[in-house]
Amino acid sequence: MTATAERSVFRSVVSVEVAIAAAPDVVWNHLVDAADHVSWNSTVDSIDGTIAPGQRIAIRVPVAPGRTFRPRVVEWQPPHRMVWRDGSLPLFRGDRTFSIAQTDHGCTFTMTEELRGMLVPLIAPSLPDFAPVFDRYAADLREVSERT
To answer: Which has the closest alpha carbon to 67: 46, 49, 50?
Structure first.
């Protein structure tokens, strides 16, 4: 498991994939339980709100102290796919996609964040390196899911 990153002028994408020896519904349940995230997810300080279709949540993370991200859950296909979105094109839109695919030994979890729009070149220099954060997120999710 090593996160990958790619950037172009108006687009930035970070993605990580990890095999998890747990059923997709176990992984899904950890992803959608906002109140429990801080107990297993070292990349999050807090998530307020309900992770459910159409809902907006408030996320605070250690890599961006003092900032609160407020994505909306725009896609919901339990236990296989969920998308969080913030902003709108053409200026800026961020989509974080969570995918869970069943395998013979559990599942494969993939998380991808795509930032697009005319503001990407302006904000890109201020963005932290998300690859280590994605690696840690995936490792934390694997650990909690495999011991559940």
So the answer is: 46
Domain 4-147 superfamily per CATH? START domain (3.30.530.20)
Structure tokens of 16? 């990580």
The helix/strand/coil state of 103 is: strand
Task: Express the helix, strand and coil content of the chain in percent, nearest 5 each.
Answer: 30, 40, 30
How long, in residues, is the chain? 148
**Of the candidates 133, 132, 92, 96, which has an alpha carbon nearest to the alpha carbon of residue 114?**
96
Assigned token pair, 32? 């959608």
**Where are the chain's structural domains?**
4-147
Per-residue pLDDT tens digits of the chain, which is 148 residues long? 799 999 999 999 999 999 999 999 999 999 999 999 999 999 999 999 999 999 999 999 998 889 999 999 999 999 999 999 999 999 999 999 999 999 999 999 999 999 999 999 999 888 888 999 999 999 999 999 999 8
How far is residue 47's CA from residue 33's CA, in Å, rounded to a whole number?
A: 9
Q: Which residues contact 126 (CB under 8 A, 6 or more apart)?
A: none
